[in-house]
Design goal:
alpha+beta, Rieske Iron-sulfur Protein, 2 domains, 7-stranded antiparallel β-sheet, 17 strands, 27% helix
C-alpha cells in the first residue's frame, strides 16, 4: 500500500535545508513574467526558497541572471522587488560589475582584487512564452528540453500570445509540500470546494503522469463553468490552471520550512472583464478554502500526532509521484 511521506519532511528545518540544495538549486524555477523585463535595465530581484535571485534585461535585450549577492560582504546588487538599474553596483560598498557579472572595480579598496575570484555568481535564465525561468545550475539542460512534453500540451492553447493582466500573492502558514499535496488531489473537492465542485463533474476527474516532470489533471466541466477542467503541475512548484481563453499560472514558493508564498499570475488571450472577474473569483475562493484546510493540516503535522497514512490509488497517485521525487532528490544529495 502506498504511504504518505514521513511527517518529518513537513516540519524539519534540516529537511528543508536539504531540499534547498537538492531540489531548489537544481530545477528550472519560474521567477518572473516577461512584461516585468521588457526594456533594457529592467530587473526583478526576489528570493526563491531562500536563494536571492537577480534577473536583468541587458542593453542588447538579452536576459542575464545572478545571485543577488556581492562577493565582497554579501550586499545586494539590486534592492528586492522590480525596477530599473543602469549598472550592476553593490548597494552596500559600491563594488561595480559589468553586464556579465565580472568585477570592474572595488571602490577605494586599498588593494588589488582578483576579478576571476570575486565576480557575481551567474545563473541560467531563459524564457518560455510570457514566463521567465532561472536555474541555479549554470549549465543545466536547456529549459525547453527540461519542460519536455509540457511545451506541446500548453502551446496548443496559444500560450505564447497570452497577456499578463494581474498578480495576486499570499502567504500561507504551512510547509510548501503540504500545499502541493493538497493541490495534487481532488479527493477533498466535494467536502471543501462547493463552487469548484459545482463547476466540474468530479466523477470524470482523471490524473495522468505522462513524464517524470509533470502531471495532468482533467475533468468535464458544467455548462457555463468559468474554468476549463484542466490543471497541470510541473515539479517542483508550478501549476498551470486553465480557463477558457485564459490561464492562472501558480507558483508555490517556500519562504522557510513553515511558510509558503502562493503567487497567482493571470494571463488572458482576449477575455472580457467579466471573464477575468470570474477567473479571479473562482481561483481566490478556492485558495481561501485550501488555505483554511492546509494550515490546520500543518498544525496537526507540527503537533507530532500524525503517523504516515495510506495514499488512495484512485485519488492520490500524483501525491505518490511527487513525494517519491522529493524522497529521491533529497536522498541522492545526503
Amino acid at each position: 500500500m502506498l504511504r504518505q511521506l514521513d511527517p518529518l519532511a513537513y516540519v524539519s528545518e534540516g529537511f528543508y535545508q536539504r531540499e534547498r540544495t537538492s531540489v531548489w538549486s537544481t530545477q528550472w524555477l519560474l521567477a518572473a513574467v516577461t512584461n516585468e523585463l521588457q526594456k533594457p535595465g529592467e530587473y526583478v530581484a526576489r528570493s526563491i526558497a531562500g536563494w536571492p535571485v537577480l534577473i536583468r534585461r541587458n542593453a542588447d535585450h538579452q536576459l542575464t541572471a545572478f545571485l543577488n549577492v556581492c562577493p565582497h560582504r554579501g550586499g545586494p546588487i539590486a534592492w528586492p522587488g522590480e525596477g530599473r538599474i543602469g549598472n550592476l553596483v553593490c548597494r552596500y560598498h559600491g563594488w561595480a560589475f559589468d553586464s556579465d557579472g565580472r568585477l570592474l572595480s572595488a571602490r577605494d579598496f586599498g588593494d588589488q582584487v582578483c576579478a576571476d575570484e570575486h565576480s557575481l555568481t551567474p545563473l541560467s535564465v531563459d524564457e518560455w512564452g510570457p514566463l521567465v525561468f532561472v536555474n541555479l545550475n549554470p549549465s543545466p539542460h536547456a529549459l525547453l528540453e527540461s519542460l519536455g512534453g509540457l511545451v506541446a500540451l500548453i502551446s496548443r492553447l496559444d500560450f505564447e500570445r497570452f497577456v499578463h493582466v494581474r498578480r495576486i500573492s499570499r502567504e500561507i502558514n504551512c510547509n510548501w509540500k503540504t500545499y502541493v499535496d493538497n493541490y495534487l488531489e481532488a479527493y477533498h473537492v466535494p467536502l471543501i470546494h462547493p463552487l469548484l465542485g459545482a463547476a466540474i463533474d468530479i466523477e470524470s476527474y482523471t490524473i495522468d503522469i505522462p513524464e517524470p516532470s509533470f502531471c495532468v489533471h482533467s475533468a468535464r466541466t458544467a455548462e457555463g463553468a468559468p474554468n476549463s477542467g484542466l490543471w497541470v503541475f510541473r515539479y517542483p512548484n508550478i501549476a498551470l490552471n486553465v480557463y477558457p481563453g485564459a490561464m492562472n499560472v501558480e507558483r508555490i514558493e517556500p519562504i522557510d520550512h513553515a511558510r509558503t508564498r502562493i503567487v497567482y499570475d493571470y494571463f488572458t488571450n482576449g477575455d472580457t472583464d467579466d471573464d477575468i472577474s470570474a477567473m479571479l473569483h473562482m481561483s481566490n475562493v478556492t485558495l481561501d478554502e485550501d488555505q483554511a484546510m492546509v494550515e490546520v493540516v500543518q498544525a496537526n503535522l507540527d503537533s507530532g500526532a500524525y503517523r504516515p497514512g495510506p495514499l488512495s490509488p484512485r485519488h492520490e497517485i500524483a501525491l505518490h509521484w511527487f513525494q517519491n521525487r522529493i524522497r529521491t532528490d533529497v536522498e541522492e544529495t545526503t
